[in-house]
TrEMBL record:
Residues 157-181 form the Ice-binding protein C-terminal domain. It comes from the Bacteria. The keyword Signal applies. This is PEP-CTERM sorting domain-containing protein. The lineage of its organism: Bacteria, Pseudomonadati, Pseudomonadota, Betaproteobacteria, Burkholderiales. InterPro entries: Ice-binding_C (IPR013424). Residues 1-19 form the signal peptide. It comes from Massilia consociata. Keywords: Signal.
Length: 185
């Protein structure tokens, strides 16, 4: 009985656990530099970080929803975020840097397309837009835009790895306890 109660407590504790939010604020914000591969466990293809105050009145300033920096697609084209072993993508805030545009997304796993947005998301330069996709089990997130110009992305959100481990441990504990109870019968 103690094991069941303990496992249930762990399960409930993990359910409300926070997500990991990558705000890019610990990077220098030098727009000439790429976000280095391995930053926060991801590879960042065609992405840099820029300070919110670099271009006052731009979508970079409006799109920085956390403290100081936002990520952006450096050459204005397609960008991608990848992690060996995969990840779940909850969502992020997006704003167009210079002019209204549309974004579309794809989620890939081992070279196979798992997810694709059926619609494009319209961005402006004034109001950050939360794009929550809730995709699980991808190893690459590809972001396409319609304009060929830059967009800003902030608070890239994935489930907290510790929360997933806690949840898995709780489920394993429940399964083990249930198995022992069946064996006694």
């Amino acid at each position: 009985m103690k094991n069941i109660v303990f496992s249930l407590l762990m399960l409930f504790a993990s359910a409300g656990a926070p997500a990991a939010v990558i705000g890019f604020d610990d990077l220098p914000g030098d727009e000439t530099e790429v976000i280095p591969d391995g930053y926060r466990g991801f590879d960042w293809i065609n992405l840099g970080a820029i300070r919110a105050d670099a271009y006052p009145g731009s979508g970079y300033a409006a799109g920085t929803v956390s403290y100081a920096n936002t990520a952006f697609n450096r050459d204005g084209g397609t960008a991608a975020i990848a992690r060996m072993g995969g990840f779940d993508f909850v969502g992020a805030w997006f704003t167009s840097a210079w002019l209204d545009q549309e974004l579309a997304f794809e989620g890939w796993r081992k070279g196979e397309l798992l997810y694709s947005t059926d619609v494009s998301y319209v961005l402006d330069t004034v109001t950050p837009r939360w794009i929550g996709l809730g995709w699980s089990g991808i190893d690459t997130l590809v972001i396409y835009n319609s304009s060929g110009t830059q967009w800003a992305m902030d608070d890239f959100t994935v489930p907290e790895p510790a929360s997933l481990g806690l949840f898995a441990t709780a489920l394993a504990g429940l399964a083990a306890t249930r198995g022992r109870r069946k064996a006694r019968r």
